[in-house]
Every structure is written in C-alpha cells, then in structure tokens.
Amino acid sequence: MANMMTTPIPNRPDGQLSALALRAAPMEVVRVGFVGLGERGMKAVRRFCQIDHARVAALCDVSEERRCQGAREAGSQGEQGVAVFANYEDLCQSDDVDLVYVCTDWASHVPIALCAMNNGKHVAIEVPAATTLADCWTLVDTAERTRRHCTMLENCCYASHHLKTLAATRRGRMGTIVHVEGAYIHPMDDRWTPWRTEANRQLRGDLYPTHGMGPACQLLGIHRSDWITSLVSMDTEPFLREDFRNGDHTTTLMRTRLGKTILLQHNVVDPHEYTRRYHVVGTKQSTESRDSTPHDVMSMRMDRRLVHCLHHGLPLDIDVYDLAEWCAVSELSRLSIENGNVPVEFPDFTRPKFG
After folding, report:
1. Are 7 and 345 spatial neighbours (Cβ–Cβ below 8 Å)?
2. Comparison of pLDDT for 352 and 196, the residue scoring more
3. What distances in angstroms separate CA 255 from CA 6, 10, 142, 280, 334, one per listed residue?
4. What is the per-residue pLDDT across 247-267, written as a single tens digit (0 to 9) for each?
5. Per-residue confidence at 3, pLDDT binned at 50, 70, 90?
6. Tens digit of pLDDT for each residue in 287-313?
7. What is the dihedral of CA 155, 9, 255, 178, to 10 degrees?
8. HEC profile for 108-160?
9. Residue among 87, 63, 82 nearest 72 (CA)
C-alpha cells in the first residue's frame, strides 16, 4: 500500500518454535494461583471454587486484608490449604501452581506473565494483557521459548450473541464474513482509577480494544485462515475531558489479506449507555446486537472453558498470537493518529521479523 507507515517492530530470534495449536499434557486438576485480589480477582477466586477439575492453590496481593479475604473465599473448597504470598515472584516459583491468573493493573501484566512462564507456569492475563508492540512481541517470544500457554481473559468472546454467531459462521449459515464491527463505549463515571486516568492523559488511540477485537478476529479466523495487513485510525478532539490527550471518540479500521474489514470504536467519556455495538456482515446473513450477557456469566463460561482445555490437553481458544494481535491495536492506532491518520502496517506475530 502506498504511503503506508512501517511500524518499528522488534525482531524475533531465528528458529523460534511456533506456539500455534500449542498443547500441554492433560492435568487431572488445574492448580491456579491468583495474582491481584481486587474486585475482579476476588470474583475469579469465587468462580474457580465452583469449577470441576480446578483448585485455588495460591493467592497473592500486596494487601494483607485482601489475602486473608481470598483465603476465606477459597476455604470453601475443602481441606486442602491455600498458599498465600505477598509478592508474585514467590507465587510463580511455587511447585503447587500450574496456571497463574493475573488480575492486576495494566502496567504489571507483562512482568507477572513473563515471571510465570519463565518459572514453567501457564498464564492467563486480564485485558489488555499488553499495551505496547514491544511487550506483545516479548510475550510471544517467551511463550514460544518456554512452550507455556499465554492466554488473555477476554470474556466478551463468550457473550451469548457472539457464540451463536460464531457457531452459525462455522456451519456456513452466515456465508463468508466480510466485515465485523465492535466497540468499547463505556463511560467510566466514578470507576476511574489513577493508572487508567493517566493512560488517557498521556496517550492517544484505542486504549481498550480487545472487547471488540476478540470476537471480530475469531469470526474472521485471524492468523488461522486470514491475516490483518493494515490499520488506520483517527480520533476527535478531547472535548469532554480537556485534560486528556486521548480524543473523546476513536475510530479504527483494519483490512485483511483476503479483503475483509474490521471497524472498532473506543469512547470512555461520553455519557452513553455501555455498548459493544456488535455488527457482522456475511454474504448470506448479517446480524447486529448490543449483547447484554452479564459479565459474570461470560467470565464463568470463559473460566470453565479454560479449565476444560487444560484438563484435556487441548489448545486454548485464545492463544498468545490472539493476545498479541488484539492488544497491538493500542499502539498501532496511536502511531496512525500521531502521524496524520496514515495507514500502518499490521505485524504478523506468527512469523519472525528480520531486518
């Protein structure tokens, strides 16, 4: 494409083993260590107490109060004790943990995930798992080198409407999917945290792309039967939050090798009801939904499926390349916007990049 900006993508070493369709030995019981016991982490602990073939084996948080609360929640599992840690390095080194489940702030996701894989643990990371291209590549490289699963906890892939559409697509009822739209339009109101506010003050682009990106890529078979080649993004001025560099509304458009498109929208300041604006265009059928599947329902489906795959030694629904592709939108959209809304080359995380 003429005038396309080539992004500064760190090289991967030659000879690295692909993590495509990675399988691990089946686990009779998946022993899970949770890092971060805030609202999401504590809810995850409660869910795993209800899942067959899973055990809450370890808990980690900087707060002693939350560690104690988590241990009480996990006590419903029975007589087996739960190890409690004040720092994630100790949890990752524990011989009693198979999967590290990360529910901390964005900035700490990658260091914890790398520590887990380098200590022989599989890792599941809350969204977004990474916020820079360099970190996306580092997670891919480490997963390939260690042969450990590195998945992202994108629960919107388990929303009812998406699951129905995905099943219909795989059965051929939708025809060929040619265009998918998704969004994260969610006013933060009183839910702003200091680190999330700071990200919007300093950065531009789609800072939270994976809720829309995940379902779109699954429908289009990204890095399985098709690949994203380019991205272009633009934003409005920050009319509602003048202290932000990030615009009020960001729109990002992507095109694939087979000539299909993905449209994402991001808006966390407009006083609009929460919506993911899910729209799918197929050659036989189209569908549109503002799926309202409860968050806890999607998360329980996601966690049960994760345990099922690990228990049976199956590849995971969301692999490390999905993680990297979905998260890469953040920096790629910023690069497009800051360089005059130019098209930006989209990296292929499944192949080494040289020169």
Report:
1. yes
2. 196
3. 15, 22, 28, 15, 17
4. 999 999 999 999 999 999 999
5. low
6. 999 888 999 999 999 999 999 999 999
7. -40
8. HHHHHHHHHHHCCCEEEECCCCCCCHHHHHHHHHHHHHHCCCEEECCHHHHCH
9. 82
At 288, list the tokens.
């549109």
Contacts of 137 (CB under 8 A, 6+ apart): 9, 10, 12, 324, 347, 349
Residues 6+ apart with CB under 8 A from 151: 122, 123, 124, 125, 306, 316, 317, 318, 319, 320, 322, 323
CA–CA distance, 105 with 193 (Å, rounded to integer): 9
DSSP string, 184-203: EE---GGG--HHHHHHHHH-
Burial zone of 25 (CB within 10 Å; 0-12 exposed, 13-18 middle, 19+ buried): exposed
If we measure between CA atoms, which residue out of 112, 123, 268, 119 comes closest to residue 191? 268
Cβ(222)–Cβ(252) below 8 Å: no
Please identify which residue in the block is written with the tokens 């792309």.
209
Task: Provide the pLDDT for residue 76.
Answer: 60
Tell me: the pLDDT tens digits for 310-335? Answer: 999 999 999 999 999 999 999 999 99
